Structures are given as C-alpha cells and as structure tokens.
Amino acid sequence: MHYRASSAGYHLTAVAATALSIAQAHAQTPTEAPKPGTLTEAPDGEVVVTTTAQKRFENIQDVPLAVQVVNPAQLEAQGVHHFQELEQVMPSLIVRPANQPVNTNVSIRGVGTFAYAIGVESSVAVTVDGAPVAFLARAISDLPDVAMIEVLRGPQSTLYGKAASAGLIKIMTTQPTNDLHVRATARLTDDHEFAEQLSLTGPLTDTLGYVVTGGFTHWDGNLRDTVRDKRVGGRDTITTRGKLRWRATPDLTFTLSGNYVEGSTDFGRPFIRLDPAARLRSDPALTPAAVLPGVEVGPGNQTVAYNARSGTDYHGSGALLRSEWDLGKLSFLSLTNYDRFKLYDYLDFDDTASSERHGNAREIGRFESRLFTQEVRVLSPGDSAFRYALGLYYADTRFERPFERGSGFALSHLYATAGSRQIAGFGQLDWEFVPTLTATAGGRVQNERVRYTFDDLLVAQRDPQATHHYAGHDGDDAATYRLGLAYQATRDLMLFTNHATGYKGQAYDLTTGFDQKRADGGPIRPERSRDQEIGVRSQWFERRLTANLTFFDTHYRDLQAQTVEFYPDGSYRNRLTNVGRLVTRGVEVETAARPTGDLTLAANATYLRARYLSFPSAPCFPLQTVAQGCVGTPARQDLSGERLPQAPTWRLDASAEYAPELGQHYRGVMQAAWQYQGALSYAPRDPELWQRAYHIANVSLGLREADRHWDAAVFVDNVFDQRHYTSLVNNANNFGGHVATAALLPRDFRRFGGIRVGLSF
Fold first, then answer.
1. φ, ψ for residue 48, nearest 5 deg
2. How far apart are the C-alpha atoms of 471 and 447, rounded to whole Å?
3. What is the DSSP code string of 247-315?
4. Which of 42, 111, 184, 194 could form a disulfide with 46 if both were Cys (CB 3.0 to 4.6 A apart)?
5. What span, in angstroms and rounded, lies between the C-alpha atoms of 147 and 515?
6. Whole-number Å distance between alpha carbons of 547 and 537
7. What is the pTM of this model?
8. pLDDT for the residue numbered 649
C-alpha cells in the first residue's frame, strides 16, 4: 500500500458528507486527500465510498463480503453519538446495555456474548484504527473523532490479527491532512445534554503531520431518583486523541497515536410492572410503598428509589504505533498497541430504598485490563490478478476483578485475575484466474494459553481453614479458514459466495460461586462457527440506484453464554456455560439512491431467523412452572427449537436528505431517519422480558454554507414519542415470587429536541 493512497483513502470516506454506505462508482484513488467537509464525486456525479474490509482501500461494490460502512454525516443525521447507538444505523447489529459497560452485550445476526466473567472474549470484536480493544467496555463511549465505521458480519479470522466468531466492528478515526483544518461542533438539547467536539489536523513540517481531537459530553439522564432527589441515567465523558505522522522517507511512514478517556455514569432501572402483593425479600413490612417511596410503577415510569449510588467511574489510555513500509511491489505494515483501562462500578442491587439489612444489598467492584498486541502484515499489490495478505499476531491480555456484594443477601466477596496469551498466523489469497472470476482462500492457525486465579474472600472470612484460593491454566490450538468465489458479471453486477469458519477461545467462569468443582472442570469449551453466504452487489440506472443483498446461514457450536440457576429459597447463581448448537439464517438488504444531486435516499433491512438447535439444560426463568417446561433438580428447561433472545425477525432503517441550493452561497438541509425493530425477548419464553415492536423517527432542518465552512440545524429525535426499552430484568425472585419487572431506558425513551452547530475551516 502506497503512502499517498492510504492517506487519501482514509479521507475519502471521512469527508463524503452525504455519501451513502454503498458506493455509486468504481473505486478511483484520488491523488490528494480532499478537504474535510467537501463532497468527493466522480466527474459524472457518482459518489465514491471505500472500505478497508480486505486490508486495501476498495470500492465497497467490489468487495465480496457482508460489510456495511457509515460515515460521520450519517451518524449525525440519525442522532448517533455513542457506541450504544450504532444499532440505529446498522440493522444486523444490536447493543444491549447493562448496569455497567462490562456486562453490555453486542450481537450481530442475533449472536453475541453476555457474560459477567472477566477474560471472556466477545463474539463480536472491536478494533480502533486496526488495534483491538481488550474488552467491549473499552469501546463503549462517545464517538467524537470518527472517520468511518465498518461492520463486517459473520466469522472474521483470515484478514485480522484479532479473530471473531460472529463479526467485527472497525472504528477508524481522523487522520492527519496535508493542510491545516479545524472542525468544531456543539450540540444542546432540551433534556439537559451538552456536547462539544474539536478537531485540528495539519502539517508541522513537510514530513510531519498531526491530529488533535477532543470531546466533552454531559447529560443529566432521563430518570429521577426520589430518595436522593436528583436526575440519574446520564453520563459525563471526556475523550481525547492525538496523532503524529512522520514520513521518514518516501517509502517509510510512522504514525504514533495516543488516546485518553475519562468519565462517569449514573444508572437506574425503573420498575415498569410490580404486583401490589409483592414484598421485598418476602418481608411483610417491605411493601412497594415502603421500599419505593414516590415511585409510580408503570410502563412509562422514569423514577427510581435508590439509597446508594449506582453507576461507574472509569478512565483509560492507550498508544498505537503504525509503521508502513513500501518494499517495491510489497507493502509492510506493523501495528504495536498498548492499552490500559480501569472501571469502578457501583450498584444498588436490590433496586429499592430499603435500609433493612436483610433487604439491602449493594455492589462495589473494579475492572482493570491491560493489553499489548503486535501485528505485522505483508500485502501484495492490489491491482494484480494474484493478490495476498499475510500476517502474524501476538496478544497478551490481563484482567483484575475485586468485587463485593452485601450485606443483606446474595453475598459475594472475591478477587479474580485472568490472562491470555495468543500467537496466530493468518493470510488470504485472491486469484483472478479469469478476468471476471476471482477465487479466495484464507486460513488462520493460532495457539492460545489462558490462566486465572480466584480468591473467595467470603469463604476465607467464614472459615480460614477452608479452600478459598484457586489457580489454573490451559491451552488450545485452533485452525479456521475461508473459501470464496466472486463473479463480476458486468461492471455493475457482482455475485459472490463464501464459506467461513470462526473460533472464540476457551474461558474460565470466574464469577460468584466458583468452587472446587468449577476449578476441576477447567475452562469453558471454545466457541466455533460455520458460515455460508451468497451475495449480490448491483447498481442500476447509471448507478443512481444501488441494491445489495446477502443471504447467510451460520451454525454455532458450544456458544459461550451466561445462565442463571435459581433455587427454591429464592437465591440464584450466575454460571457461564456452553450452549449446544444454534443457527441463524436470514437476508440483509442495503439500498441507496440519488435521484437528483440534491436528494439522497437509503434503506437497509435485516430478516433474521435465529434459534437453538440443541439446548436441553437451559435455566428456567423466574415464576416458570412445570406446565411451562421447568422441570428437574436443579430446575431446567429444554430450549431446543426456541428463538434466540435479542434476535428480532425484522430490523429496518431508512434515511433521506434533501439539500437544495438557496442562492449562490447556501444550501438548506432537510434530513429524516426512521428505524423499525420487530418484537423480541430478552430471555427465551419469559413473558416479563418481552419487548414489543416499535419504530423511531428523527428529523432535522438546517442551513449550511456552500463550501461547508459552517452549518447549523435544529432536530427532533423520537418524533412520535415511541416508548421502548433497551433491556428488561425479571426481579420476581427478589420479591417473594411476585411479578417485579425493571427496565433499562434508551437515550430516546421520550421525544427530545435540540440544536447543533459546526464550524470548519
């Protein structure tokens, strides 16, 4: 990869302010990076959008993979400013938040990882500028300096150092430019959110360029705590990033980047259903009125009653050295990455204001991660008939987790550590053996070692002579592959098929209840996937209409999932286990149209059928009866054939932008976005955790200067005030076996509006 092509490729995607996820022309590498904020078009008015899905800058229409690309303009138009909101523009992606980011579940095509244990990898991986994050909590923050985001669906293991069994989210940030550019934005809403961002990029010398970006967000939240008389559910976040790019010689370039993030959150999960006969911990005195003062339970409840803080404080920093060296017809790339992250978490575990000891439980803990990775790649010329990308990858990850819960019930006090060391070799070959037909073969081999320590401090306090310290290690070798065939029928029509396998390493269940049996049982088995895809990439009407389809069929074996075991006395224990087998099948559609130069339209859809093929010993849900399938000791149910949680049949999104000229110097900007999500369950068969279908519409109206030196807009999100939940929690076991359901509310639970402004020069 040549230096100039690399730089221009980054900016082409970053600045196409109204470009769609689908390119409307064949890729043409520009000779210079365009000025940020301008629209890059081919001479016939077609927008060019590139992707790096195959480690090269290519037109997305020429890439035989299931990949979606979004740029900052699309994110802004649909009100996406935080990682958790990415699902609004990517219908195959769902982000399910939790009481703190470590427990957040990110799924693609219905499959993700929901696990409390440290050291458990996510089925969906995340990279920032090519470097992986240690765990998802590190990525769940604001998105202040994004150049583009790519989502690769299905197993990924032959092109990236970090493998993933379900998919990959690639976040690319702003790169240095050849000229000085400044971009400042601010956003203010009527529900007490304020955000500002600043980005400076340019040259220091002829061979040295820089980027400095920073952002600050404050939001009070959309909940009120009646006990502490304050708004909760919000966040404060500070993000900064800096880059220096040194062109040591015409063929050798180094880019050193550093980042720092700091923030805090306030958490609350209001009760939306609560049986009047419910009593906290079955205590007759702990009635709903006594433990939830000032709270009116109902579907629209936005109040909680906590007598302890719930939320997080976190900070993290990292450094990445990117080295690029052109060796004649070959390109050499090295990525050296170090990252450290620390998060303190707090939770009023009983979700009430109860001060009675037997009905009062609080959590306090800390997550700490350290990650070092080294990746090297060799790439052949991208314009030859025989192309290849080869790489080596090394990663060392360490986690620490002190945790305590008490003092009334569900007692826990532990200190756990986990670590892994991974060495992998990977590569992919593409051979265009006839002018219109390209065969692909890729593979990956890896060796991974995992280790842990676990101290049950609660047992040590009760009986110093009892076994309370455990330690162990294990290892595994794995191989995965990808085979593909792409047929370029015409310049505007490509057909492809892929067969790929995926792998996610073994892990220890380092959660409350770890004992000698778990230690003797060793790690949870690795997760494996097998995916088949058939895709069509097409453009019509002189490339003013793009229509892409992907059919997929993915089988998973030994999916790692968190389950809960409930006991007759109302207590329970979280446990990590392997789900037998499951399958996800469906169709993904991405369309885009530009009827005129002023009007841009886009629509995406995912149809998904995801079910368990074999899960005979799944945990029962609270209040489940024998008639409903809960049998045995310990109680369990057979979910074979059941639909997966967090896997709606339909997800749709559509957007439109109309930007007519208003005189010689201005353009009006009218934007509309719409998302639809079908009904889903947050736990199989549990009627209390059923989320009905809903739709959200956002609109904005603004004005911008023709050369994009400034822009301003007013916006309204959730125009029709559609109330919905991002997660539901069944607390019946904590309320004497009576209905008690709490919810997590999204940012747009209620309609809100605001104004955003931007300056660019």
1. -105, 120
2. 21
3. EEETTEEEEEEEEEEEEEEE----EEEE-TT--GGG-TT--HHHHSTT---STT--EE--SS--EEEEE
4. 42
5. 47
6. 7
7. 0.89
8. 96
Higher-confidence residue of 713 and 121: namely: 713
Statement: residue 565 has pLDDT above 80: no
Q: For the residues 49-73, what does the mean pLDDT come to? A: 76
Nearest CA-CA partner of 175 in 7, 56, 320: 7
Pairing verdict, β 303-304 and 223-225: parallel
Does residue 97 have a cis peptide bond before it, meaning omega lies within 30 degrees of 0? no
Helices (H), 118-207: none
Here the tokens at position 470 are: 């455990």
SS3 733: helix
Please tell me the distance from the alpha carbon of residue 334 to that of residue 161, in angstroms, as a whole number.
11
pLDDT exceeds cutoff 90 at 318: yes
SS3 (DSSP) at 727: strand
| Token pair in block for residue 719 | 């125009």
What φ, ψ does residue 47 adopt, rounded to 5°? Answer: -85, 135
Which helix H or strand E contains 725, and what residues bound it?
none
Flag the least confident range among 39-53, 151-165, 291-305.
Answer: 39-53
Cα of 645 vs its chain's centroid, Å: 17
Give residue 632's region: left, alpha or beta (phi > 0; psi -120 to 50).
Answer: left
**Ranges of H-type helices in 439-561:** 457-462, 516-521
- pLDDT surpasses 60 at 3: no
* E strand or H helix at 75: helix 72-77
Residue 8: DSSP 8-state: H
Using CA atoms, how far apart are residues 483 and 498, in angstroms rounded to an integer?
Answer: 6
Interatomic CA distance for residues 260 and 339, integer angstroms: 10
Cβ atoms of 575 and 511 closer than 8 Å: yes
Non-local (6+) Cβ contacts of 681 within 8 A are 643, 645, 646, 689, 690, 691
- What the block records as the tokens of 265 is 């959150």
DSSP state of 358: G
Dihedral, 672, 677, 678, 680 alpha carbons, nearest 10: -160
* Closest among 691, 682, 695 to 652, alpha carbons compared: 695
Handedness of CA 62, 393, 401, 116 (dihedral sign): positive
Angle ∠(519,522,523) on CA atoms, nearest 5: 120
